[in-house]
Amino acid sequence: MQIVTKLIPTKLISSQSPPILQSQLQGVERVALLRLLDQAKSYPLTLITAPAGYGKTTLLSQWKNRLLAKNIPLAWFTLDESDNKAEQFSHYFASALAKATGISLQDIGYQNSLIDYFGRLLAQLDQVQSHFYLIIDDYHLIENSEIHDALRFWLKHQPNTMSLILLSRLTPPLSITNLRIHDKLLEIDVHQLAFTPNETRQFFEQKLNETLSDEIVFSLCERVEGWATALQLMILAIKQNSELIHFPEKLLSKLNQLHIADYLNEEVFHYVEPEVKQFMQRCAILRSMNEKLVLALTKDENGVKKLDDLEKQGLFIQRLIQDDGEIWWKFHPILASYLAQSCRLELPNEWQQLHQTASMVWLKLGYGSEALYHAQMLDNPETLYRILQENGWSLFHQGQLKLLEDCLTHLPSEFLWRDENLVLLKAWLAQSQHRYQDVLGILQKFQPKAPLTESFQGRFDALRAQVAINNGDEEQAYLLATQALNNLPSEFNYAQIVAKSVIGEAQHCRGYLKDGLQIMQQVEKLATQQRAYHHWLWSRLQQSEILSAQGFWQSAYDLLKETTQQTNDFHQIPMNEFLLRLKGQILWEWHHLDQTEAMANAGIELLENEEEQVQCLALLAKSSLTKGDLNNAERLIEHCRSLLARSSPHKDWVTAIDEVQLIYWQMKGDTQHLESWLAQAHFPAQEHNHFTQRQWRNIARCYLLREDYEQALRILNSLLKTTAIFNLVSDSQRALILRNRLYYLQGKPDLAQRDLIQALNLSQQTNFISAFVIEGDLVAQQIRQLLQLNVLDELSTHKAQFILRSINQHNRHKTAHFDEAFVKSLLENPQVPELLKISPLTQREWQVLGLIYSGYSNEQICQELVVAITTIKTHIRNLYQKIGVSNRSEAIEYTRSLLRMMGY
């Protein structure tokens, strides 16, 4: 057969990626990989291996352009199937060398041995002094062992002035291990080539001219594991329907419908034997696999070897080595989706049996969640029913809530409602996700055909006790839980944990904090023994709330911090949101506002149901109010109100929003909504816990804003009496701060001062800051007076000074307003007094003027700015002269006029 001797020019220039990538990926500069490639000069061989579409050629094209810009010699040789002929390979190889080195090699002819030919080429390269690169693309197409042997020979004798770079979908047989051992190989694999989230963001924003959230970027990148081709196909789908960018699952579904099958058939399965494809299809129904699963599904004794071969061929499969050394495998998610779909279409008679087999094997291996996944695929629900019967509760305790919800929804109703065990499971799934109305509906719908056994009655009583505590009926909850404990035999450990947990929560709600804390500690111990993760976590969160109510906020936070570290492997929704929110509430009290917002936002990320995000949104609004950002607070409050209108929220959720709403109205001086709020407000029957204490404070604040001081005072006096009886330290401090406001507005400064001092002293235990800051000017004025009178002890003085600085920082019309940006804007205002333009204040003088306006004495200004009193007096004298005033009162009025002019 005649060998082609006239060379095709395009094979000796930079090979182009498939059109789908070539024009699209060039704009994303792979900085880290390009930097890594710069090390290629130090290695005889650089090997870049990855499946099709990972941007190997595009990356090398970028790097080639950088080298050419520096006049570094290189040549590019792209292979196709015809290059498996040794003589043809030799012609292109020599031509590429000649181009890179400038040496004529035409006199060297191929004479039946490629190794001999390479030896004569190597002899000619001795005269090359400058370093050069030879790039060979698509080396996976070479199957001729003569070429592999010759290239091994070449690498052994390759001159130091040359670096060879191979691009391949699989690892070539070139003694790669030996090269690794002797540090003569630079490798870039699929993991390095996969696009990072930052590169994904850059890619999408270049193509769509749209800024994407971190959530969307990470979601898209994670789902395709950084596969460049999939990212580009997403762009094509999004350009057809822009809404898909916000729904990753729909986008991937659309992707599979549109282009993936065509791409994989052309670029991957064109080179795969039909029986190998069928082997992959059978395996692909598994989300991960080991030897036992592969054997069961394929009946192939050499299945693991085939998986090993697939990996070597670059067919989108990854091995996972467990800690115990066992080897597992998984397909790339895009390929797995394609294979699973094609399996259903091309092997329809096997589809159901494959899932049935997989479900049974997973059960034997002890993976109930995977068994359920496959059981859902079956037309016959018996397998699903049986697995739920045997494994449902253990999966519940492991936090597999969504999977269980999906399975119970998939299960026909005649299977569900005839089984007390599954009805209980369904109810607890709703309870654990705070869907209290659903729990009631399930209990009402369930009509057992025969009287329940004593043990089942006990389990249902435990659930009804939980429902009662949800509804705020702690007395009924206590009775039902006690009754459940009496009926439950020892083997029903979970129901006993539930009942005991409800008793602890009931004691908490009844105000018996010490008793409630001890019971919750017992629940934690029992839940740990029984591996009931859900109630272990619940008991920890309840303990934290009780410690907070007792005023032990540092202990509460330490408990939550420790709990967070222990829950890293779990994704309990919405329980983990509660954990994050509790931490955020503590951080808010301590005035760590940025961290508060981070916790609230993290909680929102965990919740799929928008209506459940209300409490985190309320916390964000509260943080905005504390910062003085009323516009953002208003937006968040309105959003919360709209979410509450769409659901049946727990009254504690409403109380949290009402608290923020009333503080917002207080800051705005808005009294028009108070009557309507009071008309629909819930008036709790008691005030023994922090939930009902907060609602009564809301009512008292409403009366306060209406200037109905007697009603407000009656409520606050009652609250403080109750907090003393039940040791509700934190609620006592909050009530004192609110009563301080009341006394101050009533013109009773001595009583107001007494409450403020007592509240500040309590801060030595609780470390409360924001509860003072959010009350704003009124507290600031009193604190300045206390500091001037020097009546506080050292610790309370330190707290007071910090509170004062925080109030000034977050009130826009105070000193924080006189920063450089504000001053620049002020001086550009055409209404600004001419004298101020002619003789502008220094930045320090602006600070001093702001502190004067805020009511600071000269001594307090010294403390704030940490300068000597003589320096402050000099600043005051200078700024008085510049603005044309003669005393403090005139300076305050002058500043007020400037702020009015600027719209404050």
Automatic annotation (TrEMBL):
Keyword Transport among record annotations: no
Subunit structure: Monomer in solution. Oligomerizes to an active state in the presence of the positive effectors ATP and maltotriose.
PANTHER family: DNA-BINDING TRANSCRIPTIONAL ACTIVATOR DEVR_DOSR
Protein task: Positively regulates the transcription of the maltose regulon whose gene products are responsible for uptake and catabolism of malto-oligosaccharides. Specifically binds to the promoter region of its target genes, recognizing a short DNA motif called the MalT box.
Organism expressing this protein natively: Ursidibacter maritimus
Inhibition and activation profile: Activated by ATP and maltotriose, which are both required for DNA binding.
Residue ranges of every copy of the HTH luxR-type domain listed in the record: 834-899
Record has Magnesium as a keyword: no
Name of the protein: HTH-type transcriptional regulator MalT
Homology family: Belongs to the MalT family.
Gene3D superfamilies hit by this protein: P-loop containing nucleotide triphosphate hydrolases (3.40.50.300), Tetratricopeptide repeat domain (1.25.40.10), Winged helix-like DNA-binding domain superfamily/Winged helix DNA-binding domain (1.10.10.10)
Recorded coiled-coil stretches: none
Single GO MF descriptor: ATP binding
Lineage: superkingdom: Bacteria
Keyword entries, A-Z: Activator, ATP-binding, Carbohydrate metabolism, DNA-binding, Nucleotide-binding, Transcription, Transcription regulation
GO biological process terms on file: positive regulation of carbohydrate metabolic process; positive regulation of DNA-templated transcription
Annotated positions binding ATP: 50-57
